[in-house]
Automatic annotation (TrEMBL):
Protein's recorded name: Dipeptide epimerase
Domain of life: Bacteria
Length: 364
């Protein structure tokens, strides 16, 4: 199976409600789609969101990295030289993890199709379904309570609540939500780097004293501040999960060796795809650090690839793969079935993606 062409397109999918974090506010998913064509007619699919505030990757940068570096490296090569392809993909350009992730998943898709096996089984997995949380955007407490109750009505029992914007309001936000939702609702929070280390300890221990029962906090402090993260981890009663601090397997190792976080969030767009995500999962297994599988604002092609990983690795004990259910429509054909919180992996060879609804992709 020889790679003949890398085709790129753009999709635009409106969100049900605007997505607001301490870092950004957006109202639609605007992603780059990658199709890798082969001489057998098989096509591998990938997707990359331009999450500039987190990864530094813009739409133009994703397109440029794929066209000017990655495509030139992989076209003409055989999918069966999988390890060589992965090393070439990772070595042909620095950083650009979103572009690499989109191509990495399209290659896994083709490799699974070549050997007629779904990717999660190729990775040794046997689990067929997982359960995701859903994100509540940061707003005034009243609006957040409305969004939380709407999520409960849709059947979600785990909320990931965004905080970190106007930190003085965060305890009030969480108190209002905790008072409104059923007692057994799991609540995790994500500050998206919005607090200083001292502020984080004060807010988190304040939440603990009020009995708000927070499962964990995601990325309380700036991404580069590993010492600050460790400071919070050592002093907070609420467990700490490293998100923006962990891009590469090396970052994950450093965080684990320092004891700077209790948990790690693996995202394909931060680490460059499934090949590197597996390395983070292996490091986490060695250190006994449980992982969450997360996503950016992504539609179903790339989140579907993360579903395969989550079904394969037992060290992934938390799931934040709500990209598709935050969207008001799903233009992607095939792949995992997203029935609100319940996600069922596809048993089709590769990643199981069949294509994009006609008229919903603009080829470039
Ligand atoms: C969408 C997901 N639940 C999420 O919150 N992901 C990121 C932010 C993604 C973005 O800004 O696109 C996170 O910080 O965990
Ligand atoms: Mg996060």
């Amino acid at each position: 199976m020889k790679i003949t062409e890398v085709r790129l397109g753009l999709i635009s999918v409106p969100l049900r409600v605007p997505f607001k974090t301490a870092l950004r506010s957006v109202s639609s998913v605007e992603d780059v789609i990658v199709e890798i064509h082969t001489d057998t007619g098989a096509v591998g699919y990938g997707e990359a969101p331009p999450t500039g505030v987190i990864t530094g990757d813009t739409t133009g940068a994703i397109i440029g990295a794929i066209r000017d570096h990655i495509a030139k490296t992989i076209v003409g090569r055989d999918v069966d030289e999988f390890e060589d392809l992965m090393i070439a993909l990772n070595g042909c350009i620095q950083k650009n993890t979103s572009a690499k992730a989109a191509v990495d998943m399209a290659l896994w898709d083709l490799y699974g199709q070549l050997y007629k096996i779904p990717v999660y089984k190729l990775m040794g997995g046997a689990k067929k379904s997982i359960v995701t949380d859903i994100t509540i955007s940061v707003n005034d407490p009243e609006e957040m309570v409305r969004d939380a109750l709407n999520a409960i009505d849709r059947g979600y029992d785990c909320l990931k609540v965004k905080v970190g914007k106007e930190p003085e309001k965060d305890i009030a936000r969480l108190s209002a939500i905790r008072a409104a939702v059923p007692k057994e609702t799991c609540i995790r929070i994500d500050a998206n780097q919005g607090w200083t280390p001292k502020e984080a300890v004060r807010i988190l221990n304040g939440m603990q004293e009020k009995g708000l029962d927070i499962e964990f906090v995601e990325q309380p402090v700036k991404a580069h501040d590993f010492d600050g993260l460790k400071y919070v981890t050592e002093r907070s009663y609420v467990p700490v999960l490293a998100d923006e601090s962990v891009f590469s397997p090396q970052d994950a190792l450093t965080i684990m060796q320092m004891g700077a976080a209790d948990l790690v969030n693996i995202k394909l767009m931060k680490c460059g795809g499934l090949y590197n995500a597996l390395k983070i999962a292996s490091a986490a297994e060695v250190y006994g650090v449980e992982c969450m599988i997360g996503c950016m604002l992504e539609a179903k092609i790339s989140v579907n690839a993360a579903v395969h990983l989550a079904c394969a690795k037992q060290i992934i004990t938390r799931v934040d793969l709500d990209g598709p259910v935050l969207c008001s429509e799903d233009p992607i054909l095939g792949g995992a079935v997203f029935n609100e919180k319940d996600i069922t992996v596809s048993d089709e060879p590769g990643l199981g993606i069949k294509g994009i609804e006609p008229g919903k992709i603009r080829y470039i």
